[in-house]
Amino acid sequence: MTYLTLSITLIFVLIPLFLSKTLHLQLEKDTIIATVRSIIQLLAVGYVLKFVFEAESFFFIFLMVALMIAVATDNARKKGKTIKGITWKIAITLVVIEILTQSILLGFGVVPATAQYIISISGMVIGNAMVLAILFLNRFTAEVEARREETELILSLGGTPKQAVRQPLIDAIKTSMIPTIESQKTIGLVQLPGMMSGQIIAGADPVQAVQFQLMIVFLLLTNAAMSSVLLGFLSYPTLFNERMQLIKRKR
Question: Which 3-state string (H, E, C) describes 185-241?
Answer without folding.
Answer: HCECCCECCHHHHHHHHCCCCHHHHHHHHHHHHHHHHHHHHHHHHHHHHHHHHHHEC
